[in-house]
Write a structure and sequence with these properties.
Blueprint: E1 8-22, E2 25-28, E3 35-45, E4 63-71, E5 75-79, E6 84-88, E7 92-96, E8 107-111, H1 124-137, E9 139-141, E10 149-150, E11 155-156, E12 182-184, E13 191-194
Parallel strand pairs: 6-9
Antiparallel strand pairs: 1-2, 1-3, 1-8, 3-4, 4-5, 6-7, 7-8, 10-11, 12-13
Amino acid sequence: MSGHGDPRLLYTIGGIKAYHIQHGEEHSLTPSGAQTLSLLMVPTNSPFAGLSNTRGQDEAPEEDFYLHLNLPPELDLPLPATTQIYHQPPRSYLIPRWDLGPESGAFTRIEFPALGTGPGSVTQEDIDTFETILAQCTAFLERAQAPQHDKSKGGLKQYNPQDYAPGEGYPGGSKHPHGEVVLVDEENGSVVGELAEGAQIIEDPRLKQGSKSEYL
């Protein structure tokens, strides 16, 4: 019988392969073939539990959880809420391995089998359940493009807005002669929001392209 503090199994799916990507090379983490992937909720004490005034002094600290991914024999990976996970169509998910160092350029790639109803396949419901758990427990970026690997530096290519001509960095391209107002994740350049179409934009001629605060 499981105890109060034991991990809770949320999801299992068979037929999954995993790969380690670094310096432009990909190596299998499941050399013996596809394995069963498990997602578990692992309990941990919330660092903010002591700040709450809604609980009496004699009450136990509120328990918090983080997601944990297990895929034997090589992959046993904690996925805290800040973990970035990218969907790589058609059947893969990329996890940047910042825990191995910001200059490592390392990824873990999880590959699902093809959609179907027979052995060695998964259903759309399986995919939807997996992505729903990721969206609720991690920083799942379903539609964002994963950061590119910079082979010349051996790490992940950092986003630089000056690398883009007007209209290049936006979904669907620019529809206006001037730039569009969008919210961009500085770590990887993914667009996380944009100003509604039809809004009037007045650009200060002193603004320097690609800068947040500098002027010409």
